[in-house]
């Protein structure tokens, strides 16, 4: 697992700063009584003028107008920020496979930011063999996590009707009011006071992650003191199950 540094790039940055970071330092040379300016590190970063390509921007504007205030559209979403790995210790290679991959667009519920639909604009590069392999991998990632992914052929521009027809089977824009209200879908305000693995026989399995859940206690609110099972991957996974003394 030599790739685990990928998970913590801040670590390398800290090491670099310890040894090589150059700063503009005024140093007084006592013998000559002069002030010497050390050269300042010049960062080579420049702002891109093509953050979204014309096709991406055309698509983005129409998608945003269709989704209205009920949904929000994110662009260039890193897969590792959208998905997590259920058993990170034994699945490090699966994490590394998604750290450098990005999704073109993500539609989320505006009140909960729950991801609803991923969208990829497929240009000619998607016919190259390594790109096909990458697309197949990404399709499987979405399938595993039960998030729909839509492939849209890349065009110079799009019409509203065209995009509406593509996304409406996946997102019910017109009837979005009927869905769960924000109050219902809000996760319970629970502070975790215990994170012990429950005894293997009793511990239920997290339906999302497939790993034994842990016993926790509610520390605030009207359910204070109550025990429940939570997923060890919390907060990335918010699955809970009731705890019963009898079982
Ligand atoms: Zn879980």
From TrEMBL:
Residues 205-243 form the DNA topoisomerase type IA zn finger domain. Keywords: Isomerase. It comes from the Bacteria. Coiled coil: none annotated. InterPro entries: DUF2726, Topo_IA_Znf, UCP028063_topo_Znf. GO terms for cellular component: chromosome. GO terms for molecular function: DNA binding; DNA topoisomerase activity. GO terms for biological process: DNA topological change. Residues 175-196 are annotated as: Disordered. It holds the Pfam family Zn_ribbon_Top1. Residues 51-166 form the DUF2726 domain. This is Protein containg Zn-finger domain associated with topoisomerase type I. It comes from Longilinea arvoryzae.
């Amino acid at each position: 697992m030599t790739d685990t540094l990928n998970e913590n790039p801040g670590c390398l940055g800290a090491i670099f700063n310890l040894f090589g970071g150059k700063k503009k330092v005024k140093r007084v040379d006592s013998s000559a009584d002069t002030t010497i300016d050390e050269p300042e590190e010049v960062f080579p970063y420049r702002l891109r003028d093509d953050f979204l390509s014309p096709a991406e921007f055309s698509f983005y504007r129409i998608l945003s107008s269709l989704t209205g205030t009920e949904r929000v559209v994110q662009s260039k979403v890193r897969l590792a920020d959208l998905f997590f790995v259920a058993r990170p210790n034994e699945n490090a290679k699966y994490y590394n496979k998604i750290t450098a991959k990005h999704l073109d667009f993500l539609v989320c519920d505006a009140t909960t930011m729950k991801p609803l639909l991923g969208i990829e604009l497929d240009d000619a590069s998607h016919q190259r063999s390594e790109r096909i392999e990458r697309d197949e991998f990404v399709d499987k990632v979405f399938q595993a996590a039960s998030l729909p992914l839509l492939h849209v052929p890349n065009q110079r521009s799009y019409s509203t009707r065209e995009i509406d027809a593509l996304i409406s089977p996946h997102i019910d824009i017109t009837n979005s009011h009927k869905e769960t209200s924000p109050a219902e879908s809000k996760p319970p305000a629970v502070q975790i006071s215990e994170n012990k693995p429950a005894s293997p026989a009793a511990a239920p399995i997290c339906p999302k992650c497939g790993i034994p859940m842990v016993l926790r206690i509610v520390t605030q609110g009207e359910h204070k003191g109550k025990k429940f099972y939570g997923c060890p991957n919390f907060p990335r996974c918010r699955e809970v199950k009731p705890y019963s003394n009898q079982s």
